């Protein structure tokens, strides 16, 4: 059986990161953007990271420029924005595609594991979130409008 730990992704520095490094942790995987109406959710994501990291939790941010071109910056610019504006301490990966022919393999798998409204796999917008349990399985998919603080109880239940 495939789990999230079978994938790897390039981080914002250009290094390949095996998600196996997160084995045993609860994860919230999010496609992010710096110029989106949902960008203030970075505050909530950082609060989740601060509140639950020591209990075995991490937010993994995957910037994406596929929705309204709302993530136009370089990987360096994205990290600088997230760390200076939102004091983000969670891992930020390199920009990826979450839909279409160049969909990152991780996102192809996530979308198969937890479909969206009416069974669609397609990511509809920035800040779609996938909650992963300690075994690397997708537990739930949340749309863009689900604020991080609304997910806190689900995270706590898995920890």
Describe it for me?
It is a single chain. This protein is of the alpha+beta class. The chain has one domain (4-158): 3-Layer(aba) Sandwich (Glutaredoxin). 28% of the residues lie in helices and 18% in strands. The protein contains 4 helices and 6 strands, in the order βββαβααββα. It has a 4-stranded mixed beta sheet with strand order 4-3-5-6, with helices on one face. It has a two-stranded antiparallel ribbon with strand order 1-2. β3, α1 (41-52) and β4 (57-63) form a beta-alpha-beta unit. The radius of gyration is 14 Å and the shape is globular. The model has no long low-confidence stretch (mean pLDDT 93).
Low-confidence stretches: none
What is the β-strand count? Answer: 6
What's the CATH architecture?
Answer: 3-Layer(aba) Sandwich
Strand order of the largest sheet: 4-3-5-6
> What order do the helices and strands follow?
EEEHEHHEEH
Under CATH, the homologous superfamily reads Glutaredoxin
Structural Rg: 14 Å
| CATH class categorisation | Alpha Beta
Individual helix count: 4
Brief digest:
With 159 residues, this protein is of the alpha+beta class.
List keywords for this structure.
159 residues; Glutaredoxin; four-stranded mixed sheet; two-stranded antiparallel ribbon; 28% helix
């Amino acid at each position: 059986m495939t789990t999230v730990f079978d994938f790897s992704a390039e981080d914002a520095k250009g290094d390949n990161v095996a998600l196996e490094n997160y084995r045993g942790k609860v994860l919230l995987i999010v496609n992010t953007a710096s110029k989106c109406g949902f960008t203030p959710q970075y505050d909530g994501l950082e609060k989740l990271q601060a509140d639950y990291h020591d209990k075995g939790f991490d937010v993994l941010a995957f910037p994406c420029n596929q929705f309204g071109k709302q993530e136009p910056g370089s990987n360096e610019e994205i990290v600088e924005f997230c760390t200076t504006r939102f004091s983000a301490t969670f891992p930020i990966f390199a920009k990826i595609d979450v839909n279409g022919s160049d969909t990152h393999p991780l996102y192809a798998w996530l979308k198969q594991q937890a479909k969206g409204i009416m069974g669609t796999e397609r990511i509809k917008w920035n800040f779609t979130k996938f909650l992963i349990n300690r075994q690397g399985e997708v537990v739930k998919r949340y749309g863009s409008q689900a604020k991080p603080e609304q997910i806190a109880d689900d995270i706590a239940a898995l920890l």
